[in-house]
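Memo to structure team: turn this sequence into structure tokens by end of day. - J.P.
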Amino acid sequence: MTIRPTPAQLAWQQDGFGLFLHFGVNTFGGCEWSDGTLDPALFAPCALDTRQWVRTAVEAGAAYVVLTAKHHDGFCLWPTATTAYSVASSPWRGGKGDVVGELAEACREAGIGLGLYLSPWDRNAACYEDPEAYDAFYRQQLTELCTRYGPLYELWFDGAGSEGRTYGWDAAMAVVAEHQPDAMVFNMGLPTIRWAGNEDGLAADPCWYTVDSTGISLYDDGVSALDRARYLPPECDVPIRANWFWQEGDLHTLKSREHLLAVWYRSVGLGAGLLLNVPPDRTGRIDPADRARLLEFSGELARRFARPARATLAAGPDGEVVARFTAPVLLDHLELAEELTHGQLVTGHEVLADGEVIASGRTVGVRRVHAFAPVEVTRLTVRLTGPGGRLAAVTGFCTGHSSLPELAAEPGPAAGHPTA
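Reply from structure team:
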């Protein structure tokens, strides 16, 4: 039986693009993974502006943001009752600040989704070595985040550092079910979306939405078997620089516009979601260079897909789909969308113009973007394989770019990241 998505999963898939915000004591300690001993007094942004973060996301076309409310070091960006290792012990806002609260308000004002990352691995919590005590500790932190800040769009549970560890996920997921039933759950617990399996921001073809196991961590080659096959569309994560937290001295690793475009074609363009990390700096604002590059990339995307030519669909012979445009159109990009209400059913496809194949692949999913040499058409024929798969839409574009960008090597090694 085909497994169907929930309305919340379909809505998440349609959104497609969010910004990751790695921010915390590591930002000020000059490291990616601290061990839970950095002094909270280091956390001292002089001009923290969550509205600037959200404005940047909105201008880039992102539908949501995900903030590292607690990373592996255990430092909490909200005044939690569970530990003194938080913003309450920092000089910022006189110890009265709440980064999560300020971001939640900014997201509500702008009308975009708020996602929160709560690392299961905690290198500061003294109770971490006592699984029962730590599960209660973690559950209290999760409850605070799920009850204080309004509706959450996504909860991000990172698997790095948790290899071989068993957590009390049933009780933790009961908290989510009670307080945030519509939030997407990433990767662990009872996930509704999954990790794509790399930190390069890349999906694959086929991009399957129904799986019976998932990868948990970059540092574990194994997979985690699910209790049954589940509908779990992938989210691809990647940093805009080599590091995930803002660091001095790595501006040379800022990804080029073309690299970011290539990532988009190979994530969103293959039917996955993209979570692009653009971290706030030590002032508490998005770095001007990162912001400029992000908007350069998203602006070029907007330009390429600004003038859609939508086709009407009709059944053709032998199960083919005929896509007709109202007038002759010059195309070098084509976006296909599958009807997913009854699950993902298309396992292969090819698109023909005047009998010649101009695009082909395996899955279609929520969106599949093809680039090809420019061709003028009034109709296209789409051949689908799979058990009853149907297209919801075919949209053509003439962008002036007829080939996919190449993923050029970027300077500097990719830093190891706590992604699952």
